[in-house]
Amino acid sequence: MSLIKIAGIAAVVLLAAGLVAMVRHGRAQPAETSTFEPEKMKDFKKPEPAELKKKLSSEQFAVTQQCGTEPAFRNAYWDNHKPGIYVDVVSGEPLFSSLDKFDSGTGWPSFTQPVKGTDIVEKKDTGYGMARTEVRSKVADSHLGHLFDDGPADKGGMRYCINSASLKFIPLEEMDQAGYGRYLEPFVKAGLLKAPMHETAILAGGCFWGMEEIIRKIPGVTKTTVGYSGGTTANPTYKEICTGGTGHAEAIQVEFDSTRLSYEALLDYFFRMHDPTTLNRQHNDVGTQYRSAIFYTSEAQKQTAESVKARWGKSGKFSRPITTEITAATKFYSAEEYHQKYLIKHPGGYTCHVLRD
């Protein structure tokens, strides 16, 4: 039997099952827009049931939590051809790549394999008088769809038939910023993305909580660490820094992909997010630890920093001279863990930074 015939039969069977399932969970409706935005995370986890009910659409909840099936050809990703990664809508766990997606003719997203390193759970499913293999996510135990052996023979012969409602699509250009940077290499090999060029910048401009909250969201930034730089005391603590006696400034170590974000562009963000004209002060935070400073890590960074500072000094944006110091980077000391991503841990916490136009 040809692949097309098999796919057609599978589509009819799954469509019938899907309609039954949708009726079981309520009258069949067009796919709803997702209201759930998984946070950037390293340790993927399943939210509490009450939270899921609030954040998932009714269709997403019915599919992922109650093994429902969405209508064929009336779902978000069956015809999506954009490059990127598909993650579990419940937990954010990476599941499938656009590089392994193919048009099966069934009306549901189909993939030849999961993302490398992802464990998809397989279960025997004898519902609706059929013997099938159900697939579920490992971390959140979300119902995803079913696995069939009628996929492209040259790519292993498998077809993961997945509900769009179980997935959230992360476009290629947003993967790094969304926390999925380690899954970019296959896209580089496929010629869809330039190989990343990693560069490090160290910037100081007042309380590092607010600075990090802005910088971590800049496209092209891959990692941020708050800490201390520019002083003389080895392994300083926050308590020592607060005395002003160590010479350190509260600073951000920024790792970024210079193929996506230039050092000059990063410095433009820097001058937009704080007041570089107040010497040793940002709003109510006073002391040398709150000074404005660019700690360059190369001669090229030094030249760029001087050029950008001069340009901003002539921009007319400030009524007073810029006091930002430009000095060679010395050892950067990471701050205590409770300071890292502080405003993610404490939404609404103190900040004196805002990104101006």
The averaged pLDDT comes out at: 88
Walk across the major sheet and give the strand order: 3-4-8-7-6-5
User: Overall 3D geometry?
Assistant: elongated
Q: What's the Cα radius of gyration?
A: 25 Å
Give the helices and strands as they follow along the chain. HHHEEEEEEEEEHHEHEHEHEEEHEEH
> Which class best fits the helix and strand makeup?
alpha+beta
State the helicity in percent bands: 25-40%
Please give the largest β-sheet: 6 strands, antiparallel
For the secondary structure, the number of strands is 17
Uncertain parts: 1-41
Number of helices: 10
Fraction in beta strands? 15-25%
Distance between the termini: 62 Å
Write the layout of secondary structure elements.
Blueprint: H1 3-24, H2 49-55, H3 58-66, E1 84-88, E2 94-97, E3 101-102, E4 110-111, E5 120-125, E6 132-137, E7 143-148, E8 159-162, E9 167-171, H4 172-175, H5 185-189, E10 198-205, H6 208-215, E11 221-229, H7 238-242, E12 249-257, H8 263-273, E13 281-282, E14 285-286, E15 292-296, H9 299-313, E16 325-328, E17 333-334, H10 342-345
Parallel strand pairs: 15-16
Antiparallel strand pairs: 1-2, 1-9, 3-4, 4-8, 5-6, 6-7, 7-8, 10-12, 10-15, 11-12, 11-17, 13-14
Give an overview of the whole structure.
By secondary structure, the chain is α+β, with helices and mostly antiparallel strands. Helix content is 25%, strand content 23%. Strands 3-4-8-7-6-5 form a 6-stranded antiparallel sheet. Strands 16-15-10-12-11-17 form a 6-stranded mixed sheet, covered by helices on one side. A hairpin with a 2-residue loop joins strand 13 and strand 14. The model is unreliable at 1-41 (pLDDT under 50).
